[in-house]
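Entry 14. Ran structure prediction on the chain below.
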Amino acid sequence: MAGAEGTRDAAEGGGLREACGVFGVFSNAQEADAAPLVYYGLISLQHRGQESAGIAAVKDRVLTCRKGLGLVGEVFNQDLLGLLRGPAAIGHVRYSTCGANVIENAQPFVSRFKLGSIAIAHNGTLTNADVVRELLEDAGIGFTSSCDSEVIINLIAKNYRKGLERALTDTIKFIQGSYALVVLTDDALVGARDPKGIRPLCLGKRDESWILASESCAIDAVGGAFVRDVEPGELVIITKGQVLSFCFSEKTRRGVCAFEYVYFARPDSVIDGLDVYGSRVRAGRILGRESAAAADMVIGVPDSGCPAAVGYSRASGTPFGLGIVKSKYVGRTFIAPSRDEREKAVSVKHNVIRSEVEGKRVVLIDDSIVRGTTSRRLVSLLRSAGAREVHIRVCSPPVRFPCFFGIDTPHRKDLISNKAGAEELGAELGADSLSFLSVEGLLESLDGGGYCLGCFTGEYPISVPGEAGCS
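Output, structure tokens:
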């Protein structure tokens, strides 16, 4: 899971890795082209996935799709966008949690059949994907990818003779796990969110266009206005002149992914009414209240650790400083194929401002620790720059369990917090002390309950498969 702008243990291979991002536009102006808006929306969601990007558009009942491996700006240029004509389009940026990083797994997926064409972009992971895939294969339906998103589109296509609404509701009731979906048909844009709301999805408006996006920051980026979140268990169907909403499940306790607020989402997003930046500042403030260290300055690991460092500074009275600089021109280092390459990338990604830390007792604020390689490296850099003491404070609880809902985590045995307590772990990382935010503190920063805390507590909002998980 690559976070909003930050660095993390995912950077060293085997850390938490990003969810995907989805974006869709439906314009009531039939002469409009939606693809350019989708392009800019995907750029604003690039933090959610950097392995592949794709856009599908529809005009006069002809659906066209273009996708490729790499960043949005690498996959698309003006000429390619010019081929994607029509007033409705969807897009996707991907980080693989299920299936390899190959073009066959890039989204959107497209299905063409006698009754029409559909395209789908999916953020999340189905926990029953293997079972459903086997049933579909037994029915003679073929697959071109190893991605569970193709399971969804094949289910929709199989049921499409019942009509769009029925095909969607039948499909959604059959699948299990986490999903935020945008679906494009010949004449409609559809959004759906799983009954627990694990992955985010929101609705926006820009002039004559309706927008569906993983995060509100993407709606802002294209000059749109945020309207509301798509509710857990809600299906939104946008056609010319109307927006229809259906509930396809009984209301249950929410299970929104807490890591959206800790790390995934951009700080300028609002998810389910909660300001992401504000939640991170509160987490830092609570962390300062729970485990303040005597120090001369507090610094955040760029970028997602910085809001929490601001909050920690306010609570503890320790001055906030820049301290660490991150190169904006080094890509997500967890994408590098080998461990050596990943560690080299981490080494060039951060540098310490010696004049800020030399001779000082420093508190280093990070969003999470998974394997510990980044933390160990940063402690070493700070000491080399003359820091007298280095105290690590983490604005989330220890990550001790894998995620099964769209985040690629290591097996439980590879999570460093399962191998040592905070004191021992701090010593292993070369720090003078280490403390994590409590589960209660995290919930307080999020204004209460209704969150998936599975990676912290091992208690998941829905049933999960065995330890093998999906990778």
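The longest helix spans residues 276-291. Will compare against last week's run tomorrow.
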